Amino acid sequence: MTGLRYVYAVCRPLGAPLQAQLTGIGGAPPALLSHRGLIAVVSTVPEADFCEEGLKAHLEDLDWLAATARAHQGVIDALTTVTTPLPLRLATVFRDDSGVRSMMEARETDFLHALDRLAGRVEWGVKVFTEPPPEPATDERAGTAGTAGTAGTAEKSDKPMSGRDYLRRRRADTRAHEADLQAAEAFADALHQRLGAHAEASRLHPPQNASLSGARGRNVLNAAYLVPRDRSEEFVELVDRTKDEAGGLRVELTGPWAAYSFSGLAEEDARHGASAGEGR
Question: Residues 26, 29, 30, CA angle at the centre, nearest 5°?
Fold first, then answer.
């Protein structure tokens, strides 16, 4: 191969072949690079895009980043169907095959330990959201109803709400919203405990920022669960049953994923000083 080596994941030798038509970054098919009982799943990428200067420029290109992330995740998803992969962070590249092998040798103990611990397991994600409160009607806002002198406004409210009544209504709405939020958090806590009892491990992630994720409502649970693959159907059924108890909340299940939250590679990356573009 020529060009830089993009590394998607590290795993043990595959028990079944990858999809024949699988492609990765830039449409390049992934290849398997062996070293001492480990496999690095790699493909060739243009140096102009993945050198330090190229990556810095692409950080401003959200479309490029999204396409790269989708291609990266597509390879990880395909690997998850045939093995237990340890995904590496987006845009991990090396100059050549020897650089990839050197990385695997340096981190061999960490990789083997994680693969032993995660073999036959997948990650499921569960999120709980409150539903956003409805916008107040126009004729309930102080000074906006019955004051314009139009026939339509007069039909909606012959007696516009006073400022005092409006503030009283808003205080009541605020108290109700706070009570609903407390109930949502209590439901989320109870759900996390219940799901955690059916998983081998769990992780609580920070709530998603709605302005970044685009999700409706407030995120009161953002958790990951490590589940044996052969018990995943039972776990999914448990989550589905809890949706009937949500009482106006929204429960979202995603997966099965590679065990991103449980691999321990983020901590090892920090210890080894790894970053996007390492090893060039």
Answer: 110
- In the chain the first and final C-alpha atoms are separated, in Å, by 16
Nearest to 22 by CA among 46, 48, 42: 42
Environment class of residue 277 by beta-carbon count within 10 Å: exposed (0-12), middle (13-18) or buried (19+)?
A: middle
Q: Measured between alpha carbons, how far is residue 185 from residues 16, 73, 203 in Å?
A: 43, 31, 17
Which of 64-68, 88-92, 158-162 bottoms out in mean pLDDT, i.e. has the lowest?
A: 158-162
Maximum mean pLDDT: which of 57-66, 109-118, 270-279: 109-118
Q: How many CB atoms lie within 10 A of CB 139?
A: 15
Cis amide leading into 256 (omega within 30): yes
Enter the pTM of the model: 0.76
Beta pairing, strands 93-94 & 219-228: unpaired
